[in-house]
Structure formats: structure tokens, C-alpha cells
Model the fold of this input.
Amino acid sequence: MSTKALRLGTRRSKLAMAQSGQVADAVRRVTGRPVELVEITTYGDTSREHLAQIGGTGVFVTALRDALARGEVDFAVHSLKDLPTAQPEELVLAAVPVREDPRDVIVARDALKFTDLPRGARIGTGSPRRMAQLNAYARAHGLDIETVPIRGNVDTRIGFVRKGELDAVVLAAAGLNRIGRSDEVTDFLSVDTILPAPGQGALAIECRAGNTAQDAALIAALGELDDPFTRVAVTAERSLLAALEAGCSAPVGALADHLADGQFVKEMRLRGVVGTPDGSRTVQLSTTGPVPDTHDRATALGRELAAEMLAQGAAGLMGERAQ
Done:
């Protein structure tokens, strides 16, 4: 490969720059080439509307993909949960590195845990998925909470708590870990309580699927950063999301995790949930089987669970459907 600098397309947010910087370091190691970050503003970064209102699907991704297609950058880094489930033919998902912690977390006033929040506690989140599951859990356990829709970066969201406007906010553990702020977490939400968004905690490294020798060499080099366990897990989760015909901002949670027998991973469990934002109705199911050894088998696992969820009425619980 050439020694010319590789151009990495990234969103401008502090979190995006942090995770892109970490990928850039890894790419430098495997290619021996310098990597420069190219900052790109996406529609999701500039819109002040809530994600559920603007659709969510692709709003943080399209501008990066357009820059790739135009040859302005050589590869791009996305939060995988932001990627639409349909993959453009001209682009390839070259690597899905080892996943960070997929859990959601609470940052609350007075270092409170979720279950210790006072009656009527106001909890901020921009995610219908989180709202649905928080409210469902509260209903089932006799808690009195109010979920409040918010937007903004990590500083803005935690600022609502620091200024006393909210009692707590919900964020992704992975994001706080990547920007070195995990010490601000007051409670980790078990995946038995809140299932994360499909692909949460994972990154997607995308580049052109061209026929040139340079494209092929870059795909091969980036492929060294791929983690097979993470890839099959997120493939199953995203297949579930696609089969439900749901967009990135729909109230769908999914997590595929590996079940080990001693040191050996024997099976993979896929869990999925769909709920109304008020938590009054949910459909939550799981399936366990051998760890998929191909993309098609991972995809089939997600489709099968989605079919079972649809049979139990999941479609009627989703406010926004992907078009």
C-alpha cells in the first residue's frame, strides 16, 4: 500500500472524534500509514428536532457516506447503532471492532441509583426505546417516574442534571467510556432491565467497495480490525431491526450475547423487545442457538425472532416504521 495519508471521515462531536481517533490509531498500526481526520457535519448534528421527529434513520450517517462516495475521504467511522440496516452496494462494512460495553447507564443527582430515584423523578432521554423500557420497568416495579425527551451532546445532557432541571439522564456506557467520563455514571442498567439499541457499543468502519487495487488493499487492511464475535452479534441484532421494518429511532431493543461453557463459547442468545413509549405494552422474546458461523445464519436468527415478535403484535407498538 501507498504511504500517503489515509483520510478518515468523522462527525465533529467530542464522542465521534474520540472514537474515530481510537480507530485512526489502530489503522496506523495495521497499515503503517498516517491517518488524518476529516470532520464532516451531518443533518443529525445540526437539526434541533428530536430524532423520533426527523426519523432517525441515517441522519448521522448520510453525509459521511456521501463524502466516501465522492472520494473526499477513504473510510468513515460510525456508531453502528446509527447505521441504516440496508447496506449501499457501493460501500462495504470493512470492520466491526471489538464491542465496548453495550449497556445503558444513569447519571443522576446525588449519585442515586435508578431504583433509588424519588417519586416523580424526571429522567431525560432522546430515545423512544429507552422511554418504553424505563416506563415498563417502572410500571412493573411500582416506581413513579417521568421520562422527558431531550437532545444534545454528552455535556448538554449531563448539564440538565447538574443544573437541577432533571433528576437523571440515560446515556450509553460505551460513549462515556470512550471519552473518559465513566466515573460520572451513578448506575449501570442491566440488560435484563433495559435492552440496548441494536449495535449499541459497536463501531462500524466503512469504505468504498470499488474494484481498484487500492480499494481492495484498504478493505483487507481494515479487515484486520474486525472482531468475528462482535460482527455476528450485531448482524443478528440488525437483522431483527430490519425484519421489524423499524428505523434507528424506533422503540426496539436487541442484544446478542455469547454464552460460554468454561473458556469455550458454545451458544449465542438473541433478545429483542418492542414497546410503546409509555411502557404500557411490550413484546419481549429471546432465542438461543449455536453461534452463527456465517453472515446468512446470523441474519436468519434475527429474522426468526422478529417473526415471532410480529406474531405477538410487535408491529402495532412501533410508532415510527422505516420507509
User: Anything to note?
Assistant: The radius of gyration is 20 Å. The chain is about 35% helix and 25% strand.
